[in-house]
Amino acid sequence: MGREDSTSAGDESLLAYEDDLLRAAHELGIDLSGVRGGNTVFDPTKPRVDLVAEDLSGAYLTEAKLRGEILRGVNLSGANLRSANLSDAYLFAANLSDANLRNANLSDANLWRANLSGANLSGANLSGANLSGVDLTGVDLTGANLTGANLTGANLTGVDLTGVDLTGVDLTGAKMTGANLTGANLTGVDLSGVDLSGVNLSGVDLSGVNLTDANLTSAALRGADLTNAVLRDAKLTGADLTRSDLTAAYMRNADLSDADLSKAILTGAYMRNATLHDAKLIGADLTGANLTDAYLSGANLRDAILTGATLRDADLSAAKMIRTTMPDGSIHK
């Protein structure tokens, strides 16, 4: 049955408008093929192509060419945008909830205040994108490229970022509670002040990363590389740092109460005024570490190495020192 036989005369103006809209969109380099047939509704009173605040919910836009287009406030909820080109697009306050953006190109796109809840962004290119303040909870970002993206103040609570490239990303003020960062690339990332409580950073390369005032409460950092990392005023209470490498890390005023640092390497670490109350330092290497004014009350230092460490005015009350190598090389029994 043809289209003419399946539509009423009252629908003809709308269908004609859609045809005109699609033709005009094509002339402007916008590929909207496949849009008709979903929940898409166009306003026939509009004299020109205008996608601002348009309703494209449920639209089929696979491989659509929308590079640099203004899509402010557009409703793309549930739309299929797989492999679409949205680079440089202006998506301010757009609704992309539950949209399929798998392998889509969103490089340098402006997504400020966009709704991405439940969206599939696996394998998407988000390099240089503006995601400031965006709520990304429940979003699939596995394998996505976020290099150089702006994620200041973004909500990444519980997000799976396994293997994601976060090189040069600005995460200032972002909330990442419970996020999984296993295998993520965090080279050059600024994590100062970020809420990373309960995150999984096991085995992640955090060398030289700025974690000043970061919240790493109960975080999993087993085997993580934190050499030369800046952890000033960081909160690491209850964190798992077993076998982590903290060589030359700057940890002044850091709170490591109840943290597990068993077998950790802390050679040359600067830990002045750090709190290590009830921390586990079993077999940890603290050679040359600066622990001036550190609070080590109740800490377990069994088999720990403190050769050449500075313990001036450190509080070691009730600390467990069994077979501990002291700063002068003697063994505490």
Overview of this protein structure:
The protein is largely without helices or strands. It contains two helices and two strands. It has helices at 3-6, 12-27, and strands spanning 324-325, 331-332. A two-stranded antiparallel sheet has the order 1-2. The N and C termini lie far apart (93 Å). Residues 1-7 and 33-49 have low confidence and may be disordered.
Give the gist of this structure.
Helix content is 6%, strand content 1%. It has 333 residues and is low in regular secondary structure. A hairpin with a 5-residue loop joins strand 1 (324-325) and strand 2.
Total count of strands: 2
Give the overall pLDDT as a whole number: 87
Global shape: elongated
Query: Number of DSSP helices?
Result: 2
Query: What is the element string, with H for helices and E for strands?
Result: HHEE
Query: Which class do the helix and strand fractions yield?
Result: little secondary structure
Q: Main β-sheet, in a few words?
A: 2 strands, antiparallel
Rg: 27 Å
Model regions low in confidence, pLDDT < 50 over at least 5 residues: 1-7, 33-49
Percent helix range: under 10%
Assess the beta-strand content as a share of residues.
under 5%
C-alpha termini separation: 93 Å
Order of neighbouring strands in the sheet with most strands: 1-2
